[in-house]
């Protein structure tokens, strides 16, 4: 649900193999608002809105759309940020190869306290390493 707004983003941007231009990145960021607009049509899903809005926020406040930091980011959004980032890393895309689980966990570890909530990130890493979260790899 958090990325449903990507249906409003041009395919050329979604599948671009090169780095996005600043203009394309601004268009890509609009998927958050698009997702919220669609979710609002289903009042029974209102509870997911804070997580969907905040899933691109960063622990250090350098994310979007609001640029909020730390515990001001709803906990569901902080969890979704980790899961969404991990999925993006271990999934092959038209513009990149998939990372190994070990490399993706190392990348999360490297970004604890900047991109990711340090406590939730450590918990996620531990649960994956203990086999309590099993990544679905394609």
From TrEMBL:
UniProt keyword annotations, A-Z: Hydrolase
This protein's record includes keyword Hydrolase: yes
EC assignment: 3.1.4.-
One Pfam family linked to the record: HD_5
Molecular function GO labels: hydrolase activity
Enzymatic class: hydrolase
InterPro entries: HD/PDEase_dom, HD_GYP_dom
Ranges for domain HD-GYP: 1-138
Protein name per its UniProtKB record: Cyclic di-GMP phosphodiesterase
Species of provenance: bioreactor metagenome
């Amino acid at each position: 649900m958090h990325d449903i707004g990507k249906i409003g983003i041009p395919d050329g941007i979604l599948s671009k193999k090169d780095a996005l231009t600043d203009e394309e990145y601004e268009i890509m960021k609009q998927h958050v608002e698009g997702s919220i607009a669609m979710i609002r049509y289903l009042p029974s899903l209102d509870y997911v809105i804070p997580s969907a809005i905040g899933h691109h926020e960063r622990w250090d406040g350098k994310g979007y759309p609001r640029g909020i930091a730390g515990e001001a980011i709803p906990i569901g959004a902080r969890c979704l940020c980790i899961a969404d980032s991990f999925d993006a890393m271990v999934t092959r895309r038209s513009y990149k190869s998939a990372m190994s689980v070990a490399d993706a966990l190392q990348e999360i570890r490297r970004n604890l306290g900047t991109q990711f909530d340090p406590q939730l990130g450590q918990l996620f890493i531990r649960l994956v390493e203990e086999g309590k979260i099993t990544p679905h790899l394609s």
